[in-house]
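ok trying this again, last paste got cut off
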Amino acid sequence: MAFNNGSYNSSHASGNHAERQLDPQQPIIAIMPLKSVPFDSTPRPHMNIPASIINHPAMVFLPSHSNEEDLERVLGATSHGVAVTGSAALGKVGHPIGSIDISESNDTYLFRVALPGVARDSNTFSWYVEPNGKIFIKGITTTGEKKVLKHGMVFEMLTQNLCPPGEFSISFQLPGLIDSEGVNAVFGTDGIFEGVVKKMRPQTIY
């Protein structure tokens, strides 16, 4: 490439380099592109990550229109990577235990609480609701152990992203007062605790 009197002259602009005419009074200055480096196909070095966070959990955000090739490249660069796509990628990132959805109809509230890995034993799991609409849940998580004994075999955990084992509690507030007699809840095998609670009927004043 060349610069002539401050303006760029491309050797391909005329389509024929031999026919291109230059002003002999103006010097031709050959300039390399800024920050130009030879192409190197070897893998790039790792980023300078602080030692305090090395070997800790991390997240990688991909463009909204990532293709399968992008996902495979990211997974291939990790020891135990996990790719989440579709509807599962639309929720909040993090431990799903305690994620709550609340809805309502004209006279009823419905709530759902994600409790994956929580023991469904009635001796360890309990819940109750106060008249003001506050929900309390207590239980024990069974995931997050370092070793798993299944089918007569011992498995060493390679990743531990689920909640550690132990007791927990969750509390949240429904939008309004409730009828304590109209409460029904089911802890399903899918790990979702779902409750239906009747709203307190407004009292008629005569």
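PB: full thing came through this time. The longest strand covers residues 178-187.
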